[in-house]
């Protein structure tokens, strides 16, 4: 995956943000929707939020929330995507956004990093330990701060290529099996000696 080069569609009218995973309140998707609603109208006109995950009863509630917040034009519920279709859907994004209240480094975040997607993550997810890598934009898991993160990402459109390189480098240095196995072996050696 890391040999894929992100090609940004500069002719596209909307900047695409996306999330991949279970679409539910406990994943903080409601605050992500509220974050979009807090954006100034001028910014709202520029963005599209693509939510990728199976359509469930929770999604129906989130769709109602989007209508209530008057952002249904900004939010696309794309349903579940798998295999190559999932990768292509992720590659069509300009930014990945992970709004977790609390999370280990989720597989979807690792996929986004491996693809070189510029990413917005919450401080309360374990990836925040790697903030110095300049591979992502870090925010708090509140609607207000997620909204700030989206605005920051838009302000950093010209930095996407560098964020992409940094994301891939972080993945290669921290989140692949070879590195994980070596770290695990080193920990076992410490205990054994």
Q: How would you write the strand order of the largest sheet?
A: 3-2-1-4-5-6
Mean pLDDT: 89
Helix and strand pattern: EHHEHEHEHEEHHH
Low-confidence stretches: none
Number of DSSP helical runs: 8
Report the oligomer.
single chain
The radius of gyration computed from the alpha-carbon positions, rounded to a whole number of angstroms, is 17 Å
* Main sheet summary: 6 strands, parallel
The dominant shape is globular
Topology:
Blueprint (H helix, E strand, L loop, with lengths): L14 E6 L8 H10 L2 H4 L2 E6 L4 H12 L6 E5 L3 H9 L3 E4 L8 H9 L3 E4 L13 E4 L3 H13 L4 H15 L2 H16 L1
Parallel strand pairs: 1-2, 1-4, 2-3, 4-5, 5-6
Structure description:
It contains eight helices and six strands. It is of the alpha/beta class. Helix 5 (about 105-115) packs across helix 7.
Briefly say what this structure is.
With 193 residues, the chain is an alpha/beta fold. Helix content is 46%, strand content 15%. A six-stranded parallel β-sheet has the order 3-2-1-4-5-6, with helices on both faces.
Which keywords apply here?
193 residues, 8 helices, 6 strands
């Amino acid at each position: 995956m890391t040999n894929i080069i992100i090609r940004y569609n500069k002719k596209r009218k909307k900047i695409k943000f996306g999330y991949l995973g279970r679409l539910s309140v406990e994943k903080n998707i409601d605050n992500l929707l509220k974050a979009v609603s807090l954006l100034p109208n001028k910014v709202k006109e520029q963005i599209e939020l693509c939510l990728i995950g199976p359509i469930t009863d929770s999604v129906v509630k989130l769709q109602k929330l989007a209508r209530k917040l008057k952002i249904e034009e900004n939010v696309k519920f794309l349903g579940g995507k798998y295999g190559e279709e999932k990768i292509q859907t992720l590659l069509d994004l300009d930014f990945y956004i992970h709004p977790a209240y609390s999370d280990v480094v989720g597989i979807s975040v690792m996929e986004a990093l491996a693809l070189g997607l510029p990413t917005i993550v919450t401080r309360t997810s374990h990836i925040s330990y790697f903030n110095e890598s300049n591979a992502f934009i870090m925010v708090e898991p509140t609607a207000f701060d997620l909204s700030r993160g989206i605005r920051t990402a838009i302000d950093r459109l010209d930095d996407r290529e560098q964020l992409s390189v940094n994301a891939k480098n972080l993945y290669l240095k921290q989140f692949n099996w070879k590195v994980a196995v070596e770290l695990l072996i080193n920990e076992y050696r410490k205990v054994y000696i």
